Amino acid sequence: AQYVWWPWAHxxxxxxCYILAILTYIIVPSELSKAVHPxxxxxxxxxxxxxxxxxxxxxxxNEGPVVGxxxxxxxxxxxVSIVIIAIFIIVEMKIEEPIMPLSIWSVAGFPGVLGCxxxxxxxxxxxxxxxxxxxxxxxxxxxxxxxxxxxxxxxFGLIATVVVSQLYGRIPAHYLLMAxxxxx
Length: 184
Known about the structure:
Keywords: Membrane, Transmembrane, Transmembrane helix. By secondary structure, the chain is mainly alpha-helical.
């Protein structure tokens, strides 16, 4: 494991996620809970359009600093991603059961909560990327040692998940959000 190329850390995580997805399909019961509307429809088209727009948007912001913003394909992808996101918004306004009803933006506090979560997960993603780069390229640790050094993140992530699930009904949500932002 110590002789593999550093992107394998991310590829291994992707493989693990696929395995979890398959296990979830096998393990999670197929009957619907009372909270799920069996007659509800999934907005597949909106999901595909929205995810495509976001992937392209994220791609260009990651590619631009690497190859330079003067490359036409970088800002071309940015323009295409913005157009696709605009199409997503139009589709969501027209469809009967949208994946994300636009009325949700008028709920008090929703835009702020979404902004906090987006910034928190963004900072976490940046941290994961750069800590792997720092450990392997500057400290010259092996991929296996890097993985071992990051194991506490998994352990504390699992602990946080269990703790928050137990505290959610007992503590106001804004305190949990504040704690999440502190520990991101």
